[in-house]
Specification:
The chain is of the alpha/beta class. Helices cover 33% and strands 13% of the residues. The radius of gyration is 24 Å and the shape is globular.
C-alpha cells in the first residue's frame, strides 16, 4: 500500500478526512469530541450539584452594590446615599437593588474579600484559581476543575458540555490552564435576549432547521464509505457523533437553549436583557443536569461615569439575579445549586470626580464583596466587614482560595485531589502549605455544620 510522507496509510488518512469533513458540516470538530455523553445522575448525599457563577467582568463597585457606605460622605457614596433595608434586619444594600433586598434571606454577603491585586487578568486568575500568578504553572479555573472531576471523569454524558460560559469568554487567560483542551468551557456566543438564541455550533445564522435536515439527508446520500465499510469502528463512532450532533442542533440539546419555550411572564420577570435572559438560560441548563455555568457580564470597568453606568446596569442585575434565586427556589433547585456573584476585584472607594473620570472608580483589590447562595450556603448573613470607607478589610479577611475551597467542599470535591499536568508536578485542587497562599479559612460560618 502506498504511504504519504508521514508514513500513514492513504486509505486511513482519506477515511479520517472524510469523517472530519462530514462532522464539520454538522457542528464542527468540537461536537465530535464532546457529544458522546449522557446526563450525570444525582449522587445521594451530595449537597450541591451545580454552580451558576455570575461573573461581573471588570470589577463591580462594592460600595454601590452590597457594601454601601453613606456615612462616609459624598466622595465615597456619591449619589447613592440611601441604601435600603433588606428582609433581613440589619442588612442594607444599594437602593437600586430593591428586588434583591426582598431576598436577602436566600444569600450571604462577603464584605471582606481581598487579594491586593489591581490588574484585570491577574486578579481574575487569582479569584478563579485561588493561586497567585507568575509561577511555573498556569492553573485551571474552578469551572475547568469541576469539568474534570464532576464532569468527564465522573461519567458525565449529557448532550450539553459540563462547563458552559455565556456568552463571551471570561478573560484573556486560559480557563483550562495546564489541563488539556477537553476542559475548556463551551462558550455560547450569541445573545439569549434575541430569538433565536444563536448558540455557536448549534444555530447557524440564516440556516433554518429544515435546511439543517436537508444537509443531513445529503450527507447520508454522500456517505458511500458507510455502505462499503458498515463494520468500521471509526465510521461507527462518527455516525454516533453525527447523531448526537444533530440531537444537539435539532433535538433536546437545542431545546435547552430555546427560551421561547418559557412563558412570556417568566421571561419578563428575568428581564428581556442579555444578562436577565442569560440567568434564565442558566436555570434551564442546571435543570437539565449541566454542572457548571458561568454568566460573563461585561461592562463593570467603570473608570469613567461610574454612576451613570450603575443606573443602567444595576436594575438589570437586580431583576435577573432575583428572578434566578426565586426560580431556583420555586423549582426545588436552590438547595443543590450554588449561585456565586462577584468579579475580579472591587472599585476604588474614593470617587474620582475630576476630568476625565467624571465620577469614576478605579481598580481595588484591597477589599471587595462577593455574594453566595444555595447549594448548602446559609442565607441572611454577612461575612466579614470593611472599614468605614470600604477601603480595607476591618474584620475576617476572606481570600479567593477560601471561597473556592468552600465551594469545592459543598460540591464534595476533595481539595487534595491530584490534577494531571504535562510536567509531572504534584498539583492539587487546593494549594498545599508549601505554596504559601494566604488564607483566612473556609466559610464555615455560612456552611452546614
Amino acid at each position: 500500500m502506498k504511504r504519504n510522507k508521514n508514513s500513514r496509510p492513504l486509505s486511513a488518512l482519506n477515511r479520517r478526512e472524510a469523517i472530519r469533513r462530514a462532522l464539520l458540516g454538522v457542528g464542527g470538530l468540537w461536537l465530535a469530541d464532546h457529544l458522546s455523553f449522557r446526563v450525570w445522575a444525582a449522587t445521594p448525599g451530595v449537597r450541591a450539584q451545580a454552580v451558576i457563577q455570575l461573573w461581573m467582568w471588570g470589577g463591580p463597585p462594592h460600595l454601590d452594590t452590597f457594601d454601601p457606605k453613606p456615612e462616609a460622605g459624598n466622595d465615597y457614596c456619591g449619589p447613592f446615599k440611601n441604601p435600603i433595608e433588606t428582609n433581613v434586619p440589619g442588612i442594607r444594600i444599594c437602593e437600586l437593588l430593591p428586588l434583591l433586598a426582598k431576598q436577602a434571606d436566600k444569600y450571604s454577603i462577603i464584605r471582606s474579600m481581598t487579594h491586593g491585586n489591581n490588574g484585570h487578568e491577574t486578579a481574575a486568575y487569582i479569584v478563579q484559581t485561588g493561586r497567585m500568578p507568575g509561577g511555573r504553572l498556569v492553573y485551571p479555573c474552578i469551572g475547568a476543575i469541576d469539568s474534570l472531576l464532576r464532569g468527564y471523569d465522573a461519567g458525565y454524558k449529557g448532550l450539553i458540555p459540563p462547563y458552559i460560559v455565556m456568552t463571551d469568554p471570561i478573560g484573556r487567560f486560559s480557563p483550562n490552564g495546564f489541563l488539556n483542551e477537553r476542559y475548556q468551557p463551551f462558550v455560547t456566543g450569541g445573545n439569549p435576549a434575541q430569538t433565536p438564541f444563536a448558540v455557536e455550533g448549534i444555530i447557524a445564522p440564516g440556516i433554518t432547521d429544515q435546511h439543517q435536515r436537508d444537509r443531513r439527508e445529503l450527507l447520508h446520500q454522500l456517505n458511500t464509505l458507510g455502505h462499503v465499510m458498515p463494520n468500521d469502528a471509526e465510521l461507527t463512532a462518527a455516525n454516533q457523533a453525527e447523531q448526537q450532533a444533530y440531537d444537539m442542533i435539532l433535538g433536546d440539546g437545542a431545546k435547552v437553549f430555546d427560551l421561547s419555550q418559557e412563558k412570556p411572564e417568566v421571561r419578563d420577570r428575568y428581564g428581556r436583557t442579555k444578562f436577565g435572559q442569560s440567568c434564565l438560560a442558566a436555570r434551564r441548563l442546571v435543570e437539565h443536569g449541566v454542572p457548571f455555568v458561568t454568566i460573563n457580564s461585561p461592562g463593570w470597568d467603570t473608570h469613567k461615569e461610574n454612576f451613570q453606568a450603575m443606573r443602567r446596569m444595576l436594575p438589570d442585575l437586580d431583576k435577573g439575579m432575583s428572578a434566578l434565586l426565586q426560580d431556583l427556589s420555586d423549582r426545588g433547585l436552590f438547595d443543590r445549586t450554588i449561585v456565586w456573584w462577584g468579579g475580579e476585584f472591587g472599585r476604588t472607594p474614593k470617587i474620582q470626580w475630576e476630568e476625565p473620570w467624571n465620577g469614576g472608580r478605579g481598580h481595588w483589590g484591597q477589599c471587595f464583596s462577593a455574594v453566595v447562595a444555595g447549594g448548602g450556603f446559609k442565607g441572611g448573613q454577612v461575612v466579614g466587614a470593611s472599614d468605614d470607607k470600604g477601603e480595607q478589610v476591618a474584620r475576617r479577611p476572606v481570600y479567593p482560595v477560601d471561597l473556592l475551597g468552600s465551594i469545592y467542599e459543598l460540591l464534595v470535591i476533595d481539595g487534595q485531589t491530584k490534577l494531571p499536568n504535562p510536567y509531572g508536578v504534584d498539583t492539587r485542587v487546593m494549594p498545599t502549605p508549601d505554596e504559601n497562599v494566604k488564607s483566612g479559612g473556609l466559610l464555615k460560618e455560612i456552611m452546614p455544620g
